UniProtKB/TrEMBL annotation:
Gene3D superfamilies: alpha/beta hydrolase
EC code(s) of this entry: 3.1.2.22
Name of the featured protein: palmitoyl-protein hydrolase
Top-level taxon of origin: Eukaryota
Domain Phospholipase/carboxylesterase/thioesterase: from-to ranges: 1-89
SUPFAM superfamilies per the UniProt record, alphabetical: alpha/beta-Hydrolases
GO molecular function ontology, one term from the record: carboxylic ester hydrolase activity
Stated family: Belongs to the AB hydrolase superfamily. AB hydrolase 2 family.
GO cellular component: cytoplasm
């Protein structure tokens, strides 16, 4: 089964060195990925999110990275963007 998309909030790729198999998949190139991160996140540093965004952007054509002025939480703007992503990408 192909995934319609992935939403990653305040996340990073701790196993990024093991992504060789994933990179070979044609599905990852087509999959929609939405990643969001708070610029003031004290738990998962924003820099980790930025590094993850570079890795994912190199693997996926339908990838977007969003940042919001917040800590490790959510905000109305982020939730509105997630809603748009889901409405656009879910069958």
């Amino acid at each position: 089964q192909k995934l319609a998309g992935v939403v990653g909030l305040s996340t990073w790729l701790p196993l990024h060195r093991k992504l060789d198999q994933v990179k070979k998949s044609d599905h990852i190139k087509e999959m929609a990925i939405f990643q969001a991160h708070g610029t003031e996140d004290p738990l998962v540093p924003f820099r980790w999110g930025e590094i993850t965004s570079k890795v994912l952007a190199s693997m996926c054509a339908n990838y977007s990275f969003h940042n919001y002025p917040m800590a490790h939480t959510s905000c109305p703007e982020e939730l509105a963007d997630v809603k748009k992503f889901l409405e656009t990408n879910l069958p």
